[in-house]
Write a structure and sequence with these properties.
Blueprint lengths: L2 E7 L6 H12 L2 E8 L4 E10 L4 E11 L4 E8 L12 H14 L4 E3 L1
Antiparallel strand pairs: 1-5, 1-6, 2-3, 3-4, 4-5
Helix pairs in contact: 1-2
């Protein structure tokens, strides 16, 4: 099962490009995609990492956006499921939570 986490920061302390670079360094995973659009007001990062617990690669997509009021992030961990029931043994959630933990250090909070 995919795991999605939405986060927001209203007290912008860093530019999105700095946050993206910090995430790339902190996750220590294989970077698949780093696309920056709208003068770095929208950044998409994609990673993959092999998880032994599910014997599969798990994907992580992160979309960072900024407007005048806040910075928003959508984190999606996916693809680690195996078998008919698509069981990932928590690998998708674990990968997504690692990214969320790094963003919390910069003032982001989870939202619905």
């Amino acid at each position: 099962m995919a795991d999605v986490i939405k986060m927001r920061c209203v007290n912008k302390s860093k530019e999105l490009s700095v946050l993206a670079d910090e995430l790339k360094e902190a996750l220590v995973s294989e970077l698949v995609c780093d696309e920056r659009r709208l003068n770095d007001y929208m950044i998409m990062l994609c990673f993959e990492e092999f998880y032994f617990r599910c014997s599969s690669y798990v994907g992580l997509s992160i979309v960072l956006t900024e407007d005048s009021d806040s910075q928003d992030v959508i984190i999606a961990g996916f693809g680690g499921g195996d078998g008919l029931l698509n069981i990932s043994w928590g690998a998708n959630k674990s990968f997504a939570k690692r990214a969320a933990k790094e963003l919390k250090k910069s003032g982001f909070e989870e939202v619905e």
